[in-house]
Amino acid sequence: xxxxxxxxxxxxxxxxAGAAVLLAPRMAFATVASDRRFVFIIQxxxxxxxxxxxxxxxxxxxxxxxxxxxxxSIVTRLDDTFGLHPSLVEAAKMYRSGEALFxxxxxxxxxxxxxxxxxxxxxxxxxxxxxxxxxxxNRLAGLMPAGKPLPMSFAPTVPIALRGAVEVSSYAxxxxxxxxxxxxxxxxxxxxxxAQLHGLWSAAxxxxxxxxxxxxxxxxxxxxxxxxxxxxxxxGPRIAMLETVGWDTHNQQAGRLDRLLRGFDGMLAGLRxxxxxxxxxxxxxxxxxFGRTVAVNGTGGTDHGTGSAAMLFGGAVKGGRVLAxxxxxxxxxxxxxxxxxxxxxxxxxxxxxxxxxxxxDPERVARALIEGGSSGRTWSGLVRA
Amino acid sequence: MGTMNNTxxxxxxxxxxxxxxxxxxxxxxxxxxxxxxxxxxxxxxxPAAIAALPTSSQLLTEFxxxxxxxxGAANASAKQDLQAAxxxxxxxxxxxxxxxxxxxxxxxxxxxxxxxxxxxANHFCVSADNVSSVPLVGSLExxxxxxxxxxxxxxxxxxVEHHPAMLFYLDQIASVGPDSRFAAAARAxxxxxxxxxxxxxxxxxxxxxxxxxxxxxxxxxxxxFARALTGWSLEGEHAARGWYTGGFAFRDNMHQPxxxxxxxxxxEQQGEAQAHAVxxxxxxxxxxxxxxxxxxARHFAGDTPPSALVxxxxxxxxxxxxxxxxVYRALINSPEPWQEAGVKFKTPWEWMLSAMRGFxxxxxxxxxxxxxxxxxxxxxxxxxxxxxxxxxxxxxxxxWAAPEAIVRRVEEANRLAGQASExxxxxxLMSDLLGSVASPVTRSVIEGADSRNNALALLLVSPEFxxx
Lengths: 385, 468
Prior knowledge:
Chain A: This is DUF1501 domain-containing protein. The structure holds two protein chains of two kinds. In chain A, strands 1, 4, 5, 6, 7, 8, 9, 10 and 11 form a nine-stranded mixed sheet that branches. A two-stranded antiparallel sheet of chain A has the order 2-3. Chain A is α/β, with parallel strands linked by helices. In chain A, helix 1 packs antiparallel against helix 8, helix 9 packs parallel to helix 10 and helix 11 crosses helix 12. Chain A has one domain: 3-Layer(aba) Sandwich (Alkaline Phosphatase, subunit A). Chain A starts with a helix and ends in a 16-residue tail after the last helix. By secondary structure, chain B is mostly helical. The radius of gyration of chain B is 24 Å and the shape is globular. The relative contact order of chain B is 0.11. The model of chain B has no long low-confidence stretch (mean pLDDT 94). Chains A and B meet through helix 5, strand 6, helix 7 and helix 8 of A and helix 11, helix 19, helix 20, helix 21 and helix 23 of B.
């Protein structure tokens, strides 16, 4: 299947005009569209920070992790304490060129161990699960100039972090046969009185035709390239979200993470390569709902935990370092005697990375994104000015 | 329909689309909407398409044999071939099961009951995320959900937590009591792999199957419950190597000895009876009644279910000790689910099934197989039995109403219209499927379409047909 971009662009003009009246007026304190791009990648299922960014220099690491410990000899050494999992080949290159930053022993304010509550907290910025209805990424878009370009989800649906008052689009490569333009135009007519469907359809039509010409696959690397083909455009989105799943490794963790991380690494490379020169203007924030138990469980995996690792990638990032107030893995140092003790606030990291990417006031961004403002350790200088 | 007044027609349409799976071509509008639903609240025979499928024990045996053959392969390339054959075999079983589910939904004369099977399968979901769960996912619905959909909640809960698909999916079969004889023997022979607890099933039973999250249980309750569940495993002579050939088996040598305390209650039972007693109490807990009531209310009365309805359903659940038909009758006899059309945005599954029923698509196995159902639902963003998390698919508009998701439905509507039988006349079908619910805009756009194909596609993506 081949998307005909010329036809799409003609159609785009027609439907975009219809959408303009729908945009709710809102306070905008940035008045010029930024060149900067901010991408949020969520790792659903609780990615094990101790496996992705293993603390190979911690004297208790091997004793605690036993057979699951990633061997110091095969990791990419990041500093005296931390290594990077060997499947993250491209991420390691980014680290060496100063385009990757890792934050360890980080977590949101959520302290229980439900995936779905934990994801709700890191997507809404709420003080607890289901305290806030819309997502922080949508509220971030609300701080940008109104109108195009729309923030985008690179999936058929829109995840909670990106839902809210600001109109959002979504796109993913479809394998279904493409309908004719006549039908698409009549669908626009069909939805003209239906506020919800009209908005969704207009948003979909606005981004049709932006995707690269090549038929993209649905694997992680292709998804990274596809997202980049939108983000690289001058009229493309400045805010985007991608989802990754499968991190809930209760069994056979080593092999499963090997494969998952190779895919994830390909997604990062796809973004970097597709963005070309715009990679310099890009921040990619990667986070998960919580970490996993320090000890291995009975089935070669780990159970739900607390502290984990978050990551920043992109040419805009002041990388090549690991930020951690490392609590250590000695049994007495663990949170509730089982998990990596969190010493850094994911909410603060989100607010700072977003504010610095778009050169907005960090205090105001924190108030808009995080319920009750941000808490815990504050950061600065994560992203180039 | 000409003899039916507007209120009766509206109620009939709600019964068919909100409670059922959408009006089928040539299906009469029920004259007594509530009576039509109440009559579906008793057990029915298993649909033929489902009854013809292999059982979970047969699937496990088949799976283990191929796996054993792969393990004994002469060389690496033979092993790879056998593993590929195993993946194909698993996928074929999954596909057959998906097709049988579609066929049953097309053929049923009790669509409300069929919808409830789908509802409970999503509540107690397993996800086809790895090679060992792919062939088995459908059997959980067929063997543990369907037989109890008009029975008691506790029986369904017990059947689900004993089912191989669930025991695999939430890692229970390999969970070992740290002080069990099995663990002691492993330590004594210096086994390379230490065996111990896995708390996945215990946590998700509390959080997703019974009490619901934030209902007051603690990490210690989860761990204690996980200890009580040790030993819940499967039959099979090669169980030690992870190969299973049959249904539930309790393995006493893996069970953590001793009494457990969960949610303030002490369980002195030995062996299998211990976790059984915990499940029995969970099925009757007030939090469980509330959690189930709010999920049912959300499914039939809107994303933010009215609290009066939730309370009424919870009361029916508690007073009947979880007798599900009693709860369904309370639902049908409540006013809240009968509010004007369109309180729910259809999920891709609901939308696709209602479209196929509305178009009178052929339910014979060859026709359904040609439609490539597994791939189709993948493209519609709701692969069958594959929600990717034990929480199941979300049941809210915001999760499904998204720009690209609408485009996918337009693409599929266009494809379906191209396959529709010659006899389908758009104007008449609009009247059959939407009746007086169709807005003037919908009418004029469908009537003014430039082709029969586009008119039929527009009907399927009309605002009235996208919601139920």
